[in-house]
Amino acid sequence: METEAGTSKEQNAINTDTNPFEIIEQKILALAQARPKGITDKDLIIEMPELPVKERAQIINKLLSQGHFDLFKQSGSLLYRLKDPSKAKIAKGADNEEKIVYSIIEEAGNKGIWIRDIRFKSNLMPTQLSKILKSLEIKKFIKAVKSVAASKKKVYMLYNLEPDTSVTGGAWYQDQDFEAEFVDVLNQQCYRFLEKKREQMNSCRGGPIMARNVTFASSKEVWKFISDLGISKVKLSVEDLEMILNTLVYDGKVERTLSSDGSILYRAIEPLLDSPGLIKSTCGVCPVRKHCYDIGDVTPTKCQYITEWLE
Amino acid sequence: MSVICRKLCSSILSEHFGQIVQRVAEDLFKHDARPLELICCTTHLPLTKIKEALCVLIKHGFVVYGQTERGLEYSLIHQNILLILRYPKYMFFVKTMCGDESEMILEEVLMSGYITASEVITKTYKKIEQSPSGLQPSVPVLKEKFELLVKNQFLTRSLCTDTVEEKTNEKPDFTLPDFNLAAVIKKIEGDNNSDPGDSKIYWKVNFDRLIQDLRDQIIVSAISRRLDENAGELMRQLLFLMYLRTASWAHTSNPIPLTEIKEAVKKINYPLLAHHLDQYLHLIEEDSSQFLKRVGESGGHFCVNMKEAFEQLAWATLENIVTERFGSKAARIFRLVRDKKYIEQEQIQQLAMIPAKEAKHLTYTLLQENYLQIQEIKKSGVSAAPIKTFFLFHIDLNLVVYMEVQHCYQALYNIMQRREYEISSNKRMIDKQLRMQTLTTNLKEHGATEEQLAEIADLMTPSEKQQLEKVQNTIKKLGITELQIDDTLFLLTMYLRYH
Ligand code: SF4
Where is the RNA polymerase III Rpc82 C -terminal domain (chain B) (predicted)? Predict the structure, then answer.
């Protein structure tokens, strides 16, 4: 350290309390982070020309021994690649089982994994596994997240990960509860918007195709309308709104088309048919039809549904 | 044939032709084809009665006969019996196309099964004379109307003959009738010896034509609903052009050149359509209903796709039924499964955006009621992991349509039962009113005074009158419902015919 007074002075000027060695360490780590594919000695020379070879080797060795880097050989030169910091930590002071469980959980990414699946993959006894999970949880390597898919199921994932929307449910969930009413309101409002657009069709004088084209709205337009309404407490993304618009497609009220520029367009449509004659009759929608015979308690002649309908 | 369909046919026959015909038909239902002696054996009816009944059934095309090694055997064509439900619709259609007299002629032919031209004209003439419609009966006009019906192919020559061997020409024959007009007039005036000269040349209703017309109406009105009146009219023209070049009931039309469409549209008075023809064709073609396809290299030809059209219409019908029976959220799930073809429960609740519990409940209700099917797929993962099982939901369209057809049968049967019950439990009063009506007409003919007529009208107490009115309304309402149910039945039958 003393040998490189120039550098350390410089560094000290910025942060006097820090060990100059550590500052270089940080620099190298930052560089490695910026290049997730790994850095070579050459890169280090270019980035830090004033760093002597010997010191560089010392620092690299230290970082390697601390488990910050994985070492690779690539076309004749050495490549240092940053290890996941949390993983680096677990390398120290963890037993093999913990490491296995950890890597299983890591593999699951931000979708998480159920305890049962961990057990199958690790072949550990349930009691042992829960102990390991507890320990990892306490050390803040992993966390348990309640999944919206099934109310009582927890999934495990690495501590620093943001759970996937399939786990949290995204904008439609508040504390794992699906906000059905909110969705319904949005569904209605989106439809109202598209219906209004459809009404403009009647005043369009440019021919039938033009008249149809005024009924189209891009998801972004609808999104803007909803945002301006201010009915949502949370900030919705355009994708969130596309989910809602798709429910309208499944309601048969709206059609989705891809425009030539790749954006998704929606428009309100008229169904092909009026409600069919069958369901205008009581027997079309009757809840006890399967029990309705010529004789017995439920018969067409005694039928109360028909009587009421006739009134 | 399902039990409910049999019951429905049976009750239709009983209503229109009485108990004996019904019993003979029931016997044929149960035993398929069989000779006269065996029918006699099981029904315990007198032979003459059975012969009469068979005669009626054959005349209307419900029973056919054929020579087998066991002798002459009779068998039932139950689909034709169901056509009776649609008679009022056929009559209405013909009325709008060819006018009142034509409707009356058609009605006579429907009631007789088959009949000669001179006879039907005579009958219709007399009916017009008696009816209060204000029409003036005229033999030449009726002949004209009859010919119009033949030209439109609503009537066709009946090839029914007295002996079995004579069956030769199977093609529908629309050769115009030739008979002595003067002789018909003489006959109407009471000369029973005059011979119009067309005996044994029988006519019957060409149901195939009428069924196609009702089918086309559905297509046209669907397009009118989806797009607008102009598009609907264009669709109608396309269907006309389809007839010119395509066998009936073909799945798709042969290509129709754009030039011909242009010609056709020019001839009708739809200026907006003529002006924007290309755009309208484009809209129908682009619509998700897929009724029309552009074909050929140059894109100057169009094909009407009947098969696809009825698939879309069947879907629309089923979606409506699901909505009405299980609510809009269930319909959302139904459409979602339709769209994805195969889908897991979890995806259903996510994409339909319905709370997990409710989504599950609805999905399983639809499954239980057979609107959805479930398929199990086993997928073995990595060696140690257990075999993963996926449950995928899907829809078997043919099955659901078939199920709804049965549903229509049951609904029709039930409503008919109820209507009969309402009639029979008010029989006394209905009869009384009928008697009074005949009495009034008779007296009027004999020049009765207002007072006398009022006296007869007073035979019914106000409360009776009220009750009668109520019953009549009930019967009418039930009758209308039957026609509505038949609309659905017709559409679904059309789907099955193409698929
Ligand atoms: S008759 Fe009445 S009970 Fe029977 S199916 Fe119809 S509505 Fe239901």
Answer: 187-313
